[in-house]
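#struct-help
A.M.: can someone run this one for me? Single chain, 274 residues.
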Amino acid sequence: MRRNVLARIKIGSLDIVSIQDMNVSFPPAGMFPNAPAGGWAVYRPIYPSAFAGDNLSLSIGAYAIVGAGRTIVVDTGLGPKTVPDNPGQLAANLTAEGIDVADVDTVLFTHLHGDHVGWNFQGGRATFPRARYVVQQADWEFFSAQKDDASVQAQVLPLEKTGALELVSGETQFTPEITLVPTPGHTPGHQSIVVSSGGTRAFIAGDMAHHPAQAQETGWSPGFDNDAAMAARTRESFMQRLEEDGSNACFGHYPWPGFGLIVRENGRRIFRAL
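D.P.: on it. Structure tokens below:
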């Protein structure tokens, strides 16, 4: 378990806490089939912690939004036993940050891929027993139709039986400080979470981007993108927005804890970690 002061940033009266589940790695060509093989070289010295030898290094986890009488978790990682030699640590890291699973009142899903829903249920019981679960309608319809997907069967479809599933459509003002913003392409109903308080703002981006090189290379799409062209358009639009307005950015697959800013250096748009 890794701890440092940047596991938590303050946005006005709210804290955003980065909770890591695990770290994984993938070959660049396998993950980004449309990226030129030589294109990664320029990004190795810029983002050394985003590489693991010849592979790309990706964090998997969640964010928690704490304050204003609420404890909200955004996504739930890959799960405790999904990778036998690399067990998930989400529950332990929530505890280490002083967050009790029984106090979580809401789980917001950026989308429903297996590495974002893996701690929903353990042994048939909800990990967050008091929570309601908020999903974009388009994502629910897309994933609930995938009856042969093991993670859907174990971690997504049971949400409906809890009686605590809430479906939203389009941009939604969830609380006075939290807005759910559609960022489609990676999945049909992918959404990002905008947190605004005290004149500051943060953008929890989900899988809008997987690697910091995509701050510049918005056309590089992972094979996981459901609609690569739409995902690329979404990335470009929101990377421009983040660069222009200076919002804090929270990217869950970037090197943990994933907090940073999108800035321009030497004519290139980059992710500058906090």
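A.M.: thanks! The helical segments are 28-31, 90-96, 137-144, 150-156, 158-161, 228-245.
D.P.: also worth noting: The domain at 5-273 is CATH 3.60.15.10 (Metallo-beta-lactamase; Chain A).
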